[in-house]
Design brief:
- The chain has a 6-stranded mixed sheet, sandwiched between helices.
- Helix 8 crosses helix 12 and helix 9 packs across helix 10 (243-255).
- The chain is of the alpha/beta class.
- It has a single domain, classed as 3-Layer(aba) Sandwich (Uracil-DNA Glycosylase, subunit E).
- It has 12 helices and 6 strands.
- The longest helix has 36 residues, at 65-100.
- The structure holds iron/sulfur cluster.
- Residues 99, 102-105, 108-109, 132, 204-206, 217, 220-221 line the site of iron/sulfur cluster.
- Iron/sulfur cluster (SF4) binds at residues 99, 102-105, 108-109, 132, 204-206, 217, 220-221.
């Protein structure tokens, strides 16, 4: 409903702006009709009235186009971000399915399945995963943690890398202390573990005998890591757990077309060769002997977080 004071309305009728306003919209038509009837009976003289802002008079509800555009932009950008994110998550899921179905390395396929059939006595009642393992974590991760390969009775049993073994206990406790994980343990695929700003993966996706993949098996598998990391657009730092992961990371960067680092950087705990940081592997051999301690691993993740704040995104690998 439109309410307009008569003097103001008649003043408006004397101005070109008013006639324009009165032709603008359906409510304005109602206003024009009312004004026409009133002006035919109004015989008193009017003092000049300064018209208030037009939108106050006619109750214009539309915002200026620029304001509407300013409001609409964040919403549409948000939609685009959400769409991009779900596309990326869908591509990661597709890649995970491809990895899980891989049977390329005959020796590793035979070993992972044999371990899954025979099982360790302590896990005799469990159904082993017995397949390759994709990486997992936060698709918006800035930090990737690259390991060697799944453990025969760890990831190869539980179906998630570094899950269900002592190395994982040490690693995820460190990720939790660094606020990169929501809990300090990683026991099973459905244990509620969620990573934030971190993605964990292995260079070789099948458990190898004696934890030693052959160079050929490594080369067969590395393209999976290249593709997986390329789907993490925010990635800035790769923490390499052990010399094998360090070497694999240098190779995958080369596979992705990056110029080789010269001289080739040697692995060491805390060594940096952007975008890589070296960290001793959290194997029992290292953690039980004190070669790798909690403060040492905490320092690596603190440094990784520091670099993640300033380093450029690695980009499509
Ligand atoms: S190690 Fe990699 S390439 Fe070889 S079978 Fe397993 S998933 Fe496939």
């Amino acid at each position: 409903m439109i309410v307009v004071q008569l003097p103001i309305l008649l003043s408006l009728l004397r101005t070109a702006e008013a006639s324009t306003v009165l032709q603008m919209s359906a409510p304005s038509a109602e206003l024009a009709s009312l004004a026409s009837r009133l002006s035919s009976v109004a015989t008193f003289a009017l003092a000049p009235v300064k018209p208030p802002a037009l939108e106050l008079l006619v109750g214009v509800s539309e915002q200026p186009p620029t304001a509407t555009a300013r409001q609409a932009a964040p919403a549409s950008m948000k939609t685009r971000e959400n769409t991009t994110q779900s596309l990326r998550e869908s591509e990661l899921a597709t890649l995970a399915g491809e990895i899980e179905g891989c049977r390329r390395c005959e020796r590793l396929v035979a070993w992972r399945e044999q371990v899954a059939r025979e099982r360790r006595a302590a896990y005799a009642g469990e159904t082993y995963w017995g397949r390759p393992l994709p990486g997992f974590g936060d698709p918006a991760a800035r930090i990737a943690v690259l390991g060697l390969a799944p453990a025969a009775h760890g990831g190869n049993r539980t179906g998630r890398v570094f899950t269900g073994d002592r190395s994982g206990d040490f690693l995820f406790a460190a990720l939790w202390r660094a606020a990169l994980a929501n809990q300090p343990s990683s026991l099973a695929r459905n244990d509620g573990l969620a990573l934030r700003d971190a993605w964990v993966l292995a260079a070789v996706r099948c458990a190898p005998p004696a934890n030693k993949p052959t160079p050929q098996e490594r080369d067969n598998c590395l393209p999976f890591a290249v593709r997986e990391l390329a789907l993490l657009p925010e990635l800035r730092v790769i923490v390499c757990l052990g010399a094998f992961a360090w070497d694999a990371a240098l190779r995958l960067l080369a596979l992705a077309g990056r110029p080789p680092l010269r001289p080739r950087p040697r692995f060491g705990h805390g060594v940096e060769a952007a975008p890589l940081i070296g960290c001793f592997h959290p194997s029992q051999q290292n953690t039980f002997t004190g070669r790798l301690t909690e403060p040492m691993m905490d320092a690596v993740f603190a440094r990784a977080q520091e670099l993640a704040e300033h380093a450029p995104a690695i980009g499509a690998l």
